[in-house]
From TrEMBL, chain A:
InterPro entries: CobQ/CobB/MinD/ParA_Nub-bd_dom, MinD, MinD_FleN, P-loop_NTPase, ParA/MinD_ATPase. ATP binds at residues 11-18. Residues 5-219 form the CobQ/CobB/MinD/ParA nucleotide binding domain. NCBIfam families: minD_bact. One of its GO terms (biological process) is division septum assembly. Keywords: ATP-binding, Cell cycle, Cell division, Nucleotide-binding, Septation. This is Septum site-determining protein MinD. It comes from the Bacteria. PANTHER family: SEPTUM SITE-DETERMINING PROTEIN MIND HOMOLOG, CHLOROPLASTIC, SEPTUM SITE-DETERMINING PROTEIN MIND HOMOLOG, CHLOROPLASTIC-RELATED.
């Protein structure tokens, strides 16, 4: 029996879809059987981040409404053998009321019988779409960025998850900029943990390689050179129960960086 | 590089002046309200009721009265600052 994990955040644009794509791809790289479910009906995005947008025939609403069986709607990622990584895309032309909580619960039960991990990409907000996304989940990953608005929403979502019976969600801090933290202009990991009072699953540094990988439709977790990819590889291993220390986010400063800092020039 | 690190430590500005402390403080306050689900309207009506009750016993400075939620350690407290102008005598 697999695990159903919802990736959520409250606020939009903090990296839920990127996180879902990278964790899913990372788990498949480790040999697990993974299915990604995009529940953002009307604003489908996980397919393009994964580079699978041209192969969609059926979507989640076709499955929950009973028109096709789940196995027929799943898109198998050809980067992995034997259908180890699959995507169930969101519907693009319907709205969030096209699926209800009971249908989501049944879908998750069906998928976890066949996969090791069922990752649910949750839409932004805390309305129907959110309720659907968490309906079948046993665990949750809350994504935030080091911004006041994102942290406030994360706090709200953590409260909602816990009152829905999803205990101990874990935090992914995305787009951290160590240089700004050092200057005292960005909240540190400790600051955020202190405020939100939940366990940290991982910290992903701000990294241009994320945009580049999204441009290409190849998750950064597959890029050995990417620092964000390394962070996602670590997160993936932590999900499987391996104790991996948080990576050192500090990149050594160049000589000129140090000179600038001494004389107080901010970049 | 060690010399540079040393110089940097001496000359670096106080981290406390960074904007992150402002962010933390603002977040703390906003989360106290979010978590307790006490809206500013509820606080306002609580304040009016408090004035009514306390005015039976004391003359208070209604305009300087402050009622707020505050977060100390992990508990939330209702903090009221009620300046007294005079005590009513009971005769």
């Amino acid at each position: 029996m697999g695990e159903v994990i919802v990736i959520t955040s409250g606020k939009g644009g903090v990296g839920k879809t990127t996180t879902t794509a990278n964790i899913g791809t990372g788990l498949a790289s480790l040999g697990y059987k993974v299915v990604l479910v995009d529940t953002d009906i009307g604003l489908r995005n996980l397919d393009v981040v994964m580079g699978l947008e041209n192969r969609i025939v059926y979507d989640i609403v076709d499955v929950t409404s009973g028109q096709v069986v789940a196995s027929k709607a799943l898109i198998r990622d050809k980067r992995f053998p034997d259908g180890r990584l699959s995507l169930l895309p969101a519907a693009q032309t319907k709205d969030k009321s096209a699926v209800n909580q009971k249908q989501m619960l049944e879908l998750c039960d069906e998928l976890k019988a066949e996969f090791d991990f069922v990752l649910i990409d949750c839409p932004a907000g805390i309305e129907q779409g959110f309720k659907n996304a968490i309906a079948g989940a046993e665990k949750a990953i809350v994504v935030t960025t080091p911004e006041v608005s994102a942290i406030r929403d994360a706090d709200r979502v953590i409260g909602l998850l816990e009152s829905s019976g999803i205990r101990n969600p874990r935090l992914v801090i995305n787009r951290l900029r160590p240089g700004m933290v050092r200057q005292g202009d960005m909240m540190s990991i400790e600051d955020m943990v202190d405020i939100l009072a939940i366990d940290v699953l991982g910290v992903v540094p701000e990294d241009d390689s994320i945009l580049i990988s999204t441009n290409k439709g190849e998750p950064a977790v597959l890029d050995e050179q990417s620092r964000a990819g390394q962070a996602y590889r670590n997160i993936t291993r932590r999900i499987t129960g391996v104790d991996v220390p948080l990576m050192d986010l500090e990149q050594p400063d160049s000589f000129m960086d140090k000179v600038r800092k001494i004389f107080g020039f901010r970049r | 590089m060690a010399v540079l690190d040393f110089l940097q430590r001496i000359f670096s500005r106080d981290n406390m002046s960074g904007s992150k402390n402002v962010a933390k403080e603002r977040l703390r306050l906003v989360l106290v309200h979010d978590r307790s689900s006490v809206s500013p309207e509820i606080l306002e009506s609580l304040k009016e009721d408090l004035i009514k009750v306390i005015s039976n016993y004391m003359i208070i400075d209604e305009r300087a009265l402050e009622v707020s939620l505050s977060n100390e350690d992990s508990s939330v407290a209702l903090v009221a600052n009620i300046p007294i102008l005079d005590i009513k005598r009971r005769d």
